[in-house]
Specification:
Oligomer: heterodimer
Largest sheet of chain A: 2 strands, parallel
CATH superfamily of chain A: Amino acid/polyamine transporter I
Radius of gyration of chain A: 21 Å
Strand content of chain A: under 5%
Strand content of chain B: 5-15%
Number of helices of chain A: 15
Order of helices and strands of chain A: EHHHHHHHHHEHHHHHH
Distance between the termini of chain B: 33 Å
Chain lengths: 375, 501
């Protein structure tokens, strides 16, 4: 009938990315660029935005209409080995990312919401919620993100606007100069943080491309980027370079400084933490879904109830692995930063390159095959 | 041009059968008149609107009895000469007139060789056995409610939608009970796939007896384990008629004074019958209040626990101090206190429901006022908890659909446990788990949270008929239930001045 086609709309696809990015970028990205000068981060931010917009453009132009099964397409076009390599990178990237997300959730909850609860228990809640969400498939994720991404995004945007009133111009404009290498590093980290754009072809393969679908994706990218830039502007304006370098969760500290006279709520950081949690939980669901999808493709897909069982087992396995990883990240000092850097500098670029090379490899294979036939 | 009535009775019968195809509530009764039983005639009527008794007792009934004994060739002459002399009979000359008279609740008489028909006036649609709506009260609109008979219920719907496009298909279910079910739908509006699907689901189970539509509902639901209603029940024929005009399908079950509407969305469950009868601003306000009611019924106790036990710092200091002062002397932890009052409230509710009317009301007074006040005075519970519980109960009662309200009431306990253990972290988890479940639900292919999600795929705006209700003159399209090509439901014939364009 109506929505039995297992497809999502382009609005839902855009919402999926927005929901995935909001929490992770605002909570985790500052951790990755900690210690870098404000000039480098903000300049890198603009460069990173251009880079990601360019990549988005390439992915959108290259996305094939009517291709429902991306793994099947890659295997046909570039060979099974290539397909497996790409999906292995997907698997590793989303495993690492889900681990980081579960760590972020539990760490933020431990610091701001539940200081007395064991670190063994805290990642379980987003993990189980994510597992339930991932079990619903792309359609459920798309619908839920469509409902919540805008709501969370606009509220966070308003909270950031409120925090802008606390900016001290002197601190904002007194940023040390940045070396070009530092700017490039920040730009790479910035672009790498949007690394899950590499999964865009998979999402597009199940997206109904209505009029203006590309515009929606660009809007999402720009909105998330602007939110992040706005956050850094407020952060550097209020805490200065030194403060931003020392704070563990600058976004939440920023919210705790926000004051609105006559408003019932006294602590905006708790509200912000709650909103960021929503985004992180949705993101954990996405991570587990893609993890399960990549794992199932790598282990060989099966039809019918056997295939379903296998999918569930892979999903459960992925959840356990991500849970374990999140515990390691909590125990090991600096582990999360290292994992984030592996994602941004290694896996995300690798994923993007592999996606971009599918077409050229297809052309080379085709030419070789033609030459063989001629012989 | 008006369609003439054929003098050939077989041709007329064929045409009538064609017009009334799948209208099992319309009876086409052939008869043979005259001494030699050679003159054929037809009486057509709506079963519940025109009783056999009425036909026999009317003057035309007696006249028909007289025709039994006449010579064949004199019958036509007698009808022509005497027919119009009878007070409750009117002569009709076109098929359109005949159908209009039939659907208005009259019987129509056709005779072999006569290129016309006689309308036999009846008292119209049933008023007998039709009670007042009890559970879906409205300030404005019809007071009628469905009765326990499928026949009367279909007539109550047909009374509101007088077209042969309204189809009534009768089915029987239950091996021993042989319960009569009726599928009612607008032929040009309802998706045929939905009809096929419900028929398939009805045929997919075997059961000894169907004593209420609730049994059918449980056996044909999309997701059997979900506590949320996947069919909408209504006891109001006007509500059912409005749903039919939206392209939805009605399932009536004998011995059940309510209809099942399908497909169903949560938005439709939060609308009431008079939402479309009153001013759009007021209707929008009431809808927002109902959504607030959902929030209160599901999550207020949990939020209270999360804030007071884990994050009191988000509240103003004065409020925290007064709350902690009010709790002074209460021996239980907040969660136990909350569960105690929740269970007491459920007991009172159940007792009030099972008791006859006046005693039921008394239980509310005894429970709510006396026990509540005494418990606060005895320091068993704090006054704040009583306020929270009262707000939660008000929220639960303000949800217009009882089944939906029950689902939220049940899930509230899960929320209480999550918030009692994890505070706001649990609160976020609880809401997300609920929303994931609701996002995964579909009723006959339609997402349960439509139009808040996936609405744009069918060109449906969440702002026009979701949380708010647009002015009626702007609601020109039918909702997603109707076939795409017949979504338009309203236009203005007159000048732009009247259309408000």
């Amino acid at each position: 009938m109506f929505s039995e086609n297992r497809k999502i709309s382009s609005r839902q696809a855009a919402a999926l990315f927005q929901a995935d990015w909001l929490g992770r970028l605002l909570l985790f990205f500052p951790l990755l660029v900690r210690g870098k000068s404000g000039t480098a981060v903000l300049t890198g931010g603009f460069l990173g935005l251009l880079l990601t917009a360019g990549l988005l453009g390439i992915f959108c132009t290259g996305a094939r209409e009517g291709e429902q099964d991306y793994y099947g397409y890659v295997c046909r076009a570039a060979g099974r080995l290539y397909g497996n390599c790409l999906y292995l990178v997907y698997f590793l990237y989303f495993l690492l990312q889900t681990g980081i997300l579960l760590y972020l959730c539990s760490e933020a909850a431990r610091l701001y919401l539940l200081p007395d609860v064991s670190i063994w228990v805290l990642p379980l809640l987003p993990g189980i919620t994510g597992l339930y969400l991932a079990g619903g498939g792309m359609e459920v994720r798309g619908r839920l993100s469509q409902m919540l991404a805008g709501f969370v995004g606009i509220l966070l945007f308003l909270l950031l606007i409120v925090s802008l009133f606390q900016i001290k111009g002197g601190k904002l404009f007194r940023q040390p100069e940045a070396a070009p290498s530092e700017v490039i590093c920040a730009a790479a980290l910035w672009a790498g943080s949007f690394g899950d754009l590499g999964i865009l072809p998979v999402v597009l393969s199940v997206t109904q491309r209505e009029k203006g679908w590309q515009r929606r994706l660009y809007q999402t990218l720009f909105f998330s980027d602007i939110l992040l830039i706005l956050f850094f502007l407020s952060g550097y304006g209020i805490f200065g370079q030194a403060g931003m370098g020392r704070l563990e969760w600058p976004i939440l500290s920023l919210m705790s400084t926000s004051k609105l006279h006559g408003v019932f709520f006294q602590r905006w950081d708790v509200l912000a933490a709650g909103l960021l949690m929503v985004s992180l939980f949705l993101s954990a669901g996405s991570g587990l879904y893609y993890l399960g999808l990549a794992g199932t493709c790598l282990l060989g897909r099966k039809q019918g109830s056997k295939g379903e069982r296998k999918k569930r087992l892979v999903l459960a396995g992925g959840f356990l692995a991500a849970y374990g990883l999140s515990l390691i990240l909590q125990i090991r000092q600096g582990g999360s930063r290292a994992a984030g850097r592996i994602c941004c500098f290694l896996l995300a670029p690798l994923m993007m390159v592999l996606v971009l090379l599918v077409r050229p490899v297809q052309r080379i294979r085709w030419k070789k095959r033609r030459a063989k036939w001629k012989q | 041009m008006a369609e003439k009535i054929s003098a050939d009775i077989l041709q007329t019968r064929q045409r009538l059968e064609q017009l009334c195809e799948n209208c099992d509530d319309i009876i086409i009764r052939p008869m043979v008149l005259g001494k030699e039983l050679q003159t054929r005639c037809l009486v057509v009527y709506i079963e519940a609107a025109v009783s056999n008794m009425m036909l026999e007792d009317s003057v035309i009934g007696k006249f028909l009895n007289h025709l039994w004994e006449m010579e064949g060739e004199k019958i036509l002459e007698a009808v022509k000469e005497n027919g119009l002399g009878i007070s409750d009979v009117k002569e009709l000359f076109s098929m359109e007139e005949c159908m209009a008279a039939l659907l208005a609740g009259n019987a129509v008489f056709f005779l072999e060789g006569y290129a016309g028909a006689l309308k036999i006036g009846s008292k119209g649609y049933p008023g007998m056995g039709v009670a007042k709506a009890e559970s879906e009260k409205v300030l404005r609109g019809s007071r009628e409610a469905f009765s326990e008979s499928v026949k009367i219920n279909t007539a109550l719907v047909r009374k509101r939608i007088r077209t042969t496009d309204l189809k009534v298909e009768e089915l029987f279910a239950g091996e021993e009970s042989n319960t009569l079910l009726a599928l009612v739908y607008m032929e040009h509006l309802a998706y045929p796939q939905i009809l096929e699907e419900i028929k398939e689901r009805l045929a997919a189970f075997q059961i000894d007896g169907i004593l209420d539509s609730g049994v059918v509902e449980q056996l044909t639901a999309d997701v059997w384990y979900s506590p949320f209603p996947q069919f909408q029940t209504t006891e109001r024929p006007d509500r059912a008629a409005a749903a039919l005009l939206e392209g939805r399908v009605l399932l009536l079950c004998d011995n059940t004074p309510a209809a099942l509407l399908l497909p169903t969305t949560m938005n439709s469950l939060l609308q009431t019958g008079d939402d479309y009868y009153g001013n759009f601003q007021i209707a929008s306000l009431l809808r927002c209040i109902r959504y607030l009611a959902v929030f209160l019924a599901f999550s207020l106790p949990g939020l209270y626990l999360a804030v007071t036990n884990f994050h009191p710092q988000i509240l103003p200091v004065n409020l925290i101090l007064s709350m902690s002062g009010a709790r002074g002397g209460v021996p239980f932890p907040s969660i136990a206190e909350l569960l105690l009052i929740e269970v007491s409230f459920e007991l009172m509710r159940e007792a009030g429901l099972r008791m006859p009317g006046p005693i039921g009301n008394m239980i509310g007074i005894v429970g709510g006022l006396i026990i509540g006040q005494s418990a606060v005075a005895a320091n068993l519970i704090s006054p704040m908890i009583v306020i929270i519980e009262a707000l939660t109960a008000l929220g639960s009662f303000s949800i217009p659909n009882e089944e939906l309200s029950e689902a939220f009431r049940l899930l509230k306990y899960g929320m209480i446990f999550l918030c009692g253990i994890f505070g706001l972290y649990g609160y976020v988890t609880g809401w997300l788990l609920l929303l994931i479940h609701l996002s995964g639900l579909k009723s006959f292919g339609i997402p349960y949270l439509m139009p808040f999600e996936a609405g744009e795929r069918d060109g449906i705006s969440k702002w026009s008929d979701g949380l708010f209700r647009a002015p009626l003159r702007k609601l020109k399209k039918r909702p997603v239930y109707a076939r795409r090509e017949v979504r338009g439901r309203m236009g203005f014939r007159q000048s732009k001045k009247h259309s408000g364009e």
